[in-house]
């Protein structure tokens, strides 16, 4: 059987990398020939999880077509979030928990999308459905992905099955998920040693909203006021990135993982800023707005933006 690559989205997070590794393992047990790769280097949080459970970071690829004819996608489906030459390879499998947008294939495929807090929860279900045992270390990595995406089960995206998966995987991995989860999340909040340019690209995704190219980035911190001391530098970096990449709007969500509150910084045209204000029914003050209780880009940011841009 010809080899296929398995990968998550660009600027990968713990779900994108951890679930690619888990899904590749499962598919190989089911008779496929796959390799988990990544579309970028792991962030600090993901690096912490990989080290904790004894995994090496997957190798990073820029293109898939020079290596394989077919690929499997996890944690994304939108082409602008995928490998640069996604149009040159066949997509045979997708496992995702996001909206489906601009996704087309020439042939039938296996596509599984469920509104769960994390893709790893869906893959956990697939292990169970196929009666494939999850190794201890892999369980820890899958657990890490769910903790990351649900902010330790506090995100509004969290479902009962996410909670069930966390408890089951923590038991297999032999860890206290609350203690480990907080340590892992905190490992990803050190922003002092990174430039503004690095931070706005660490966890960022592009969305096509009614003809507008919108970039939404997120960073997790434990002290909002300390992070926002760099506001002017963030805005400058966002303006430069927008100019270089033709973004019509760039939003940076700065989230406090301890109290689940966020503040947003926004740059763009008067039109796109007005649409942002319409989406959240809040006025930007000097390109900034408080968004209490907003922690999920998938559930609390992209849907209202989509509605406002499409109105």
UniProtKB/TrEMBL annotation:
Binding positions (Mn(2+) 2): 15, 75, 97, 149
The record ties this protein, via Pfam families, to: DHH, DHHA2
Sites where the protein binds Mn(2+) 1:
9, 13, 75
Give the catalytic activity: diphosphate + H2O = 2 phosphate + H(+)
Q: Mind telling me which InterPro entries this protein's record contains?
A: DDH_dom, DHH_sf, DHHA2, DHHA2_dom_sf, Mn-dep_inorganic_PyrPase, Oligoribo/pAp-PDE_c-di-AMP_PDE
Xref: HAMAP family: PPase_C (MF_00207)
Q: What is this protein called?
A: Probable manganese-dependent inorganic pyrophosphatase
- Origin organism of this chain? Lactobacillus kitasatonis
Please name the gene that encodes this protein: ppaC
């Amino acid at each position: 059987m010809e080899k296929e690559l398995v990968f998550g989205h660009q600027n990968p997070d713990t779900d994108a990398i951890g679930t690619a590794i888990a899904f590749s393992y499962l598919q190989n047990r089911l008779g496929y020939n796959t390799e988990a790769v990544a579309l970028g280097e792991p962030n600090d949080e993901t690096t912490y999880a990989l080290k904790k459970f004894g995994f090496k970071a997957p190798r990073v690829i820029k293109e898939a077509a020079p290596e394989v004819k077919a690929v499997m996608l996890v944690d994304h489906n939108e082409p602008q979030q995928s490998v640069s030459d996604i149009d040159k390879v066949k997509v045979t499998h997708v496992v995702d928990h996001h909206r489906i947008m601009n996704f087309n294939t020439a042939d039938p495929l296996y596509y599984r999308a469920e509104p769960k807090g994390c893709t790893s929860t869906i893959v956990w279900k697939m292990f169970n459905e196929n009666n494939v045992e999850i190794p201890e270390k892999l369980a820890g990595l899958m657990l890490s992905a769910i903790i990351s995406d649900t902010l330790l089960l506090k995100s509004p995206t969290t479902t009962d099955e996410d909670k069930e998966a966390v408890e089951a995987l923590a038991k297999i991995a032999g860890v206290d998920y609350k203690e480990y989860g907080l340590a892992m999340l905190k490992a990803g909040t050190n922003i002092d040693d990174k430039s503004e340019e690095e931070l706005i690209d660490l966890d960022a995704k592009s969305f096509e909203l009614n003809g507008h190219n919108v970039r939404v980035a997120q960073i997790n911190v434990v002290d909002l006021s300390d992070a926002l001391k760099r506001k002017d530098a963030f805005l400058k970096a966002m303006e430069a990135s927008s100019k270089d990449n033709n973004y019509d709007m760039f939003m940076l969500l700065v989230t406090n993982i301890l109290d689940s509150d966020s503040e947003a910084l926004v740059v763009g045209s008067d039109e796109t800023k007005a649409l942002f204000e319409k989406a959240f029914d809040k006025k930007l003050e000097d390109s900034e707005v408080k968004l209490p209780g907003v922690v999920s880009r998938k559930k609390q940011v992209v849907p209202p933006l989509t509605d406002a841009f499409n109105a």
